[in-house]
Request: fold
Amino acid sequence: MALLIDHLGIAVRSLDQAAPAWAAALGMGPAGREEVPGQGVRVAMFAVGGPKLELLEPMTPEGPVGKFLESRGEGIHHIAFRVDDVNAALARAKDAGARMIDETPRRGAGGALVAFVHPKSLNGVLVEFVQRP
Ligand code: CO
Reply:
């Protein structure tokens, strides 16, 4: 099964402030901006070569990214691996004893199906499996 790093998620307080700063530093604008209500975030994707960058702004302070910002501040929030079959990836991680945040895949940015592994199972790192349409 192919396993690539699809993107790095970066938690930011404000996309309006962060996206121009990243655009200036990288010399490229975000490929797109999107609301992902299922994850309670607004997303700006930068299609850099290889893994993309996903800036995440919480829609509410109570959501997962809002809570992350509260406790850990801005910065790298998750690593997303692209998989051919998110259900299979989820089942494998679960069989291996990982604690899952998602027992079933949900809708992520760009129409992808995603599932998250709990950071307690992976040394404090939040891992996302992404199946692209
Ligand atoms: Co992500």
